[in-house]
Amino acid sequence: MSSRAVAGEILDRIIRGGAYSNVVVRTATTELGDLDRRFVQRLVFGALRDLLRIDRALAAVSTRPLPRLDPVVLSTLRIGGEELLFARGAPHAAVDGAVTAVKERGMPAAAGFVNAVLRAVAGTGEAAIPAGAEGTALRLGVAPWLLDQVTAAMGRAGAEEFLAASNTEPAIGIRRRGRSPVPGVPVAGIGGAFLCDDASAVAEAVAAGHAIVTDPASVAVGLAVAVAPGMVAADLAAAPGGKTLHLWDAMDHRGVLVAADLHQRRARRAAQRTGPGIRWLVADAVHPALRSARFDRVLLDAPCTGLGTLRRRPEIRHRVRPESAAEAGRRQRAMLEAALPLLRAGGRLVYSVCTVLAEETVEVVAGLGARPPEGLPGERLGDGLLLAPHLTGTDGMFIAVIES
Strands 256-261, 279-282: parallel, antiparallel or unpaired by DSSP? Predict the structure, then answer.
C-alpha cells in the first residue's frame, strides 16, 4: 500500500476510531522505509493540525457535503488537501497519489470524484481567512470556543503564542538515568532532561538503560516532588509509569513507593515497564485505598484534557468539548482533596496536569495554600508554575506544591 493510502487509513483510525496519533502512526508504519514513514507522519500530523482549514477548502469545491462522504473518501481527500495546501507538495503528485490511494483502499469508483475535488483545490487554493477572532482561531487550528478558553487562562497574546507553538514539531524528550552520557541537548533548568532530534541515538540510549523517552515537562514534575532515598512516597494516578520511575530512580531504589491507578490493565502494564521494587495497586484516587497510610511525598498527576500535549497529539483539539475542562476540574479537585489527608506532617504534595486551562489548573488548587515549585523554569500561573512550548520549549504543564 502506498504511503498516502497508509496516511489516509491512519487519519481515519484517529478521527473515527479514537486512536492516539502518537501510537498509531508508530505502529502502522513499521513496514515502511524511513523516508515513507516520515512522509506519512508529516501528512497525518499536519492534517490533524490543519483539519479545519482543509475541510473548509474541500467543502468549497465539493459537490457533496463532507459529512455524507464515505470515510475512506473523506480521509483520502483530507490527506490530499494537507499535501496541496500545507505540505507544499507538487500538485500533480498529490492529486495522482490520492487517486491511487483511494483505489488501494477499496474505493475505485470514487477515483474520479477525488481527482475532481483535489484538482479544484489545487486550482483555487484556500479562501481568504476572515478577520477577527474567528480567523485567528482558524489560523491556529482550533474552534473559536477553545481559543476563548485558552485566552481566559493565559491572555490573548499568551494564548496565541501557546497555540502557535503547539503547532510545531517537537524534538524527542528524554530523561537520563544514572550518569552515562546520553544524546541531545540538556534542557535549561530541568536537571536530567534532554532534547534530541536523532531517533536512532535515542533508541540506543533507551535500549542500554541510560534513558527513557519523556518530555522535559514531565521531568520537571518529578523534580518538584523532591523525593529522597528512604522516603515513603505515593504516585496516585501513576500509569503509564514514567513519572513513577523517575521518583523511584531519585529515591535510589530505597524506601517505599506506592503507585496507584484506577485501571487494572494500565496498572499491570506500568508495573511491567517500571520493574520490581515499586508497589503497584489498582485504586481510585477519589476514594483511595490508602486512607490509613501517611506519606512524605505524594504526586497527583491528574487525568486532564491534555491540551499541553498538542504538539505530540494534535487530535486532542478535535476531541475536547466546551464542557470538558470544567468536568475534568471537578474530578481533579475531588482527587486532590482526597489526597491531602495522606500527607505526613511536613510532607509535600505535588499537583500536576498537562494542560493550561484555568478550570484544571489555578481553580483546582485555589484556597489550598498551593505555591509554585522553586528552581524550575516557567511562568507563574496563579498559585502554580506553567511550563509551555512557547515559554520553555516543553509540553504544557501546570505544577503546584502543597505542604502540610
Answer: parallel
**Which DSSP string corresponds to 54-122?**
HHHHHHHH-SS-GGGS-HHHHHHHHHHHHHHHTS---HHHHHHHHHHHHHHTT-GGGHHHHHHHHHHHH
Question: Looking at the domain that runs over 215-403, which CATH code has it been given?
Answer: 3.40.50.150
DSSP of 171-224, one letter per residue?
A: PEEEEE-TTS--SSEEPTTSTTEEEES-HHHHHHHHHTTSEEE--HHHHHHHHH
Q: What are phi and psi of 348, to 5 degrees?
A: -130, 135
Let me know: does 76 contact 109? Beta carbons within 8 Å: no
**Per-residue cell: 78:** 483530507
315 dihedral zone (left: phi>0; alpha: psi -120 to 50; beta)? alpha
For residue range 217-260, what is the model confidence (pLDDT) as tens digits? Answer: 999 999 999 999 999 999 998 888 899 999 999 999 999 999 98
Q: Span 3-124: which CATH code?
A: 1.10.940.10
Check: CB of residue 124 under 8 Å from CB of residue 118: no
**C-alpha–C-alpha distance, residues 118 and 105, integer Å:** 17
The three grid cell numbers given for residue 302, joined into one nine-digit string: 491528574
For 246-267, the DSSP string reads HHHHHTTT-SEEEEEES-HHHH
pLDDT in tens, 175-212: 999 889 999 999 999 999 999 999 999 999 999 999 99
Give the separation between CA 247 and CA 228, rounded to whole angstroms: 9
The three-point CA angle 331-337-342 to 5° equals 130
Domains in the chain: boundaries: 3-124, 215-403
